[in-house]
Structures are given as C-alpha cells and as structure tokens.
Amino acid sequence: MRDLAPANHDLDRIETASRDEIAALQLARLQLTLRRVYDNVPHTRRKFDAAGVHPDDCRTLADLAKFPFTAKSDLRDTYPFGMVAVPHDRIARLHASSGTTGKPTVVAYTQADIDVWAAVMARSIRAAGGKRGMKVHIAFGYGLFTGGLGAHYGAERLGCAVIPVSGGMTERQVQFIHDFKPEIVMATPSYTLAILDEFRRANLDPRDCSLEVGLFGAEPWTNAMRAEIEQSFDMHAIDLYGLSEVVGPGVSCECVETKDGPHVWEDHFYPEIIDPETGAVLPDGSPGELVFTSLTKEAMPIIRYRTRDLSRLLPGTARSMRRMERIAGRSDDMIILRGVNLFPSQIEALILKCPGLTPHFQLELHRRERMDAVTVVVEARPTAAGEAEREMSAFELKHHIKSVVGVTVGVRVADPGAVERSQGKARRIVDLRRSA
Ligand code: DLL
What we know:
With 436 residues, the chain is of the alpha/beta class. It is built from 10 helices and 21 strands. Strands 4-3-5-6-7-8-9 form a 7-stranded mixed sheet, with helices on both faces. The protein has a 4-stranded antiparallel sheet with strand order 10-11-12-15. Strands 20-19-18-21 form a 4-stranded mixed sheet. Helix 4 (111-127) crosses helix 5 (146-158), helix 6 packs across helix 7 (189-201) and helix 7 (189-201) runs parallel beside helix 8. It is globular. Residues 339-433 form the AMP-dependent ligase C-terminal domain. GO terms for molecular function: nucleotide binding; phenylacetate-CoA ligase activity. InterPro entries: Adenylate-forming_Reductase (IPR051414), AMP-bd_C_sf (IPR045851), AMP-dep_Lig_C (IPR028154), AMP-dep_synth/lig_dom (IPR000873), ANL_N_sf (IPR042099), PA_CoA_lig_proteobact_actino (IPR049623), PA_CoA_ligase (IPR011880).
C-alpha cells in the first residue's frame, strides 16, 4: 500500500491549529448557533425556557451542558419542518432517513450548509489519502440517504472525478472498478464484502484492481473487518462517520497516516460524551453516548443531539482535533443477554478469528421459556463448507464468544451465499421474539 498521507500545506489551517484557537472558534460559533435556534425555532425555544436557560447563559464551552438535549423524537414530533430555522425559500436541499418505525426524520440544508458539507467531506477524503485527480467510485446509495450525495459533493470539491454508481447491481460495480480504474471507493463495509465476493465469482483478483483507498461507514464495523478488507484488496480502509441529523457523512473521519479512530471536524461539530442513563457529561476518555451540536449549520442547527452511538473522545494525533473511538455499537442495537451486554460488532470481530467463516452474519433473537436466546447465523467460506468443517467452525465461534463475551449463544453455519445481502446498511439483528 502506498503512503498517501497529505502534505501539511494541503490541509485546512484549522486542522492543525492550537487547541486554544479551536476552542475560541467553537465558543463564538456555539453562541451564534444557540441564538439562531432560540430566535427561530419555537420548539427549541420552549425547551430552553422550560429548562430555565437562555443563549446568554453560554459563556464557556462547558456551559453547553446546561442546555437540553435534542432527541430523534424532537424531529419526529415537529415533522416535517418544525426544526427549520430559516425561511423556507432559503432551503436548498432536503434529505430524510427512513427509520424503522413511524415517520422519517427530515433534514434541511441551505446553500451555505451544502458548501460546508462538501468542505468537510473533501477534508475527510483528503484525510483518507484521496488527492485531486483521483477517481472516486461511490457505491453509497443516492437519494434521500445522505451517503451518496454527501460523498459526491465532497469528492467533487477535492477535485476528483466522480463515478456516481450508487448501491446495487454488484456485477456492474465490479465491472466499473475493473474498467474505469478508480483509486478510491466509498461504500458501507457490508456492501464492500458483497463487492469482494463478486470479484472472486468473476475470477478477478481484487488485489490486482486499481483501488488504493476505501472510505467506509454508515454502519458499525471493526478493526478485524478493516484487516480483512485491507488484505483482500491491498488498499487502505478508512472509517468515515456521520449522521443525517448532524449533516450526513463527514462529521468525522480517520487519517490514513494513523488509522486510530475518526477525527471529529470540531470547527463545525462540537462533540460531547454523556452517560446514557443520567445525561451527565463525562470527561474525555470515558465511554458513553456521543452527543453533537452543530456550530455552523443554518437551515437546521442541532443542539446536543443524542446519537445513541457509543464511543469515547480521545486526544488528537494526526490533527489537533479530537478523535472519537470507532463506534462500539448503538445503544439501541445492544442485546442484553442474561445480563451481559452484547453488540453485533463484538461478534463480527470473533467471526473473523475463525478461518472457516465469512463476515456475512446475522444475529437471530429468540425467546425460549421466557429467556432471550441468540443464534449467530454465519456463512461458511466456500473452502470450508463441508459438514465436519462447519461443525468445527461453529464450535470454534461458540468457544470464542463464551470466553470473550461470557455468554453462550447458538451458532448456525449456513451455506455460502445464504445470509441476506444488503446494498446499504446491513441488517445485523433479526428479532424473532413474539411480542408478548
Ligand atoms: O449513515 C451517514 C453516513 C453515510 C455516514 C455514509 C458514513 C458514510 P444515517 O443514515 O443518519 O447517516 O445514519 C447514522 O449510522 O448514528 C451510526 O449509528 C451509524 N454510522 C454512521 N457511520 C458510522 C461508522 C449515515 N463509521 C448512523 N461507524 C449513526 C459506525 C456508523 N456507525
């Protein structure tokens, strides 16, 4: 793999500014944002009033802790435009995330918001090792999902040639990668595995393809999966994070020279870690729930948005801006099995330790005699699909899970190709418990 670290003079100046300078910029922008929301969003103004806080009470960054959180329910309750802080003729774009229940959440952007988004995505692709003149194959879905268009505008801003393939039609993805020779690919990690399978099915060696860097995100993945993707394609695999309510992809991204967790682009998004039970702000380094406040957004500024994503804030390394630890899981994806917390990402890391198994998997939840039970359904590698080998793999995985996580689960090793493939975010949890 080539050394693709960007030169210092190619970075935005603020990426390497002093912490004091970053904090001063954050405070000024935060005060403006609180004021903008208070003056223009009645829903949030009522919440501030009920909590007895006013934008003037924010004199230091720590004062932000006095302000109420925003939850997904606030966006649902005010559907579709109740959180918009600008006259509607200034809205330049709407995106929406489908969500599993009820109404979608809608997010709005002004032209200035779209510009900031393009800038933070360009910064992310550059941090990943992307350079002007490279070609970018975008396999994130285009449409209301923020993945495709977010990546698109960022790649264009960096001066790359964009190949807007979107998700799906996996055979054609492989053909275009083979024929157009992009250096960069952007996709969900689970869909990247489907592309990898298709390379092999087509009898092409993925290590021979032109790809040098992949930016992967939109769903949790592990360092074990990084290793699998990097070895299979002989390319750098970089973690890209974001969420629609905050902007879309490009809230934070790893740097290719360190690959030690995404750097939060703190000049635009202010991160906090809270205790998910009490809401108390925790010091950097403590594990908890990520909360973001936008610092520059116009159309839909967001104050203390509870992401439900579990992480930690860590000091900057390749940049001055703080890092977040790779997302361990979402609090709402956590399975509590006989008192033990279990995340799909833990299972993913253990599956990758078993040479006979592929990382295509789902967790089935059952209820047996009023006790919850989990069965890991995971595919055998085609080279280890015989009955005896599968039994061995199942035994091995069960053993790893028991000794690392501390719970007994069922394991079913399925035929190659039997586990549902997604073209976007993978569905890792299949809940078969009948509602009581
Ligand atoms: O998934 C935005 C995105 C697109 C990010 C493309 C990265 C790449 P939503 O659909 O609103 O937005 O989903 C946001 O996805 O709260 C996390 O739970 C999860 N997520 C996103 N990136 C990562 C990541 C987009 N790198 C939700 N690691 C977030 C783990 C991620 N989880």
